[in-house]
Amino acid sequence: MKPIIFLVCLFFAPMLFAESAPQWNQLTPAQQELLAPVQPKWDQMPAERRQQMLKKADKFSSLKPEQQQKMLDRFEKWKSLPEDQKQHLRKRYQDFNSLPSDQKAEVRKRLEWFQSLPESDKKIIREKWQSMSPERKQKMRERFKNMTPEERKAARERLMRLRDSNE
């Protein structure tokens, strides 16, 4: 009996995937417009990939126009990057996604802190970082990575005091 059930499931599986990932001619005009660049490959794509792309297209459609423009600008910037840089960024993204949720939250918190700084401060920090040797950068990464959240907060406060004293 079990082999029969298994065979029936195998027989109907393609129909289930077909319903969850429509063919090109089953997309709405709005979806077709957004996904036009992939139209030639659409019907040959795996159902899972088509479903992901539909989800993203629908999410994009629900954004405000300025948010859509920001995403389009980012996509254009991405397309213009050299392949080695894209690979590097993909690796960093995978590394980030493999972090435990508490560490992801800490990374987001640090990014928010940096983004909240005035442009002049960001420029100073970037220039200082870029002027460091690769060895020094690695040493700083390791040191910061091994700090407790309280030590990181204290280090950020020292940086801010140092910045204020330099002004």
What does this structure look like?
This protein is mainly α. 80% of the residues lie in helices and 0% in strands. The chain has ten helices and no strands. The protein is elongated and about 65 Å long.
What is this structure's SSE topology?
Layout: H1 2-20, H2 29-34, H3 39-42, H4 47-61, H5 65-80, H6 83-97, H7 101-116, H8 119-131, H9 134-145, H10 149-166
Q: How much of the polypeptide forms β-strand, as a percent range? A: under 5%
Helix content: over 70%
**Terminal Cα separation, in Å?**
80 Å
- Rg measurement, Å: 24 Å
Structural category: mainly alpha
Extended strand count: 0
Let me know the average pLDDT.
83
Give the biggest beta sheet: none
Contiguous low-pLDDT stretches (5 residues minimum) are 6-10
What pattern of helices and strands is seen along the backbone? HHHHHHHHHH
Shape, principal axes of CA atoms: elongated
Number of helical stretches of at least 4 residues? 10
Structure characteristics:
167 residues, mainly alpha
Short structural summary:
This protein has 167 residues and is mainly α. The protein is built from 10 helices and no strands. It is 80% helix and 0% strand.
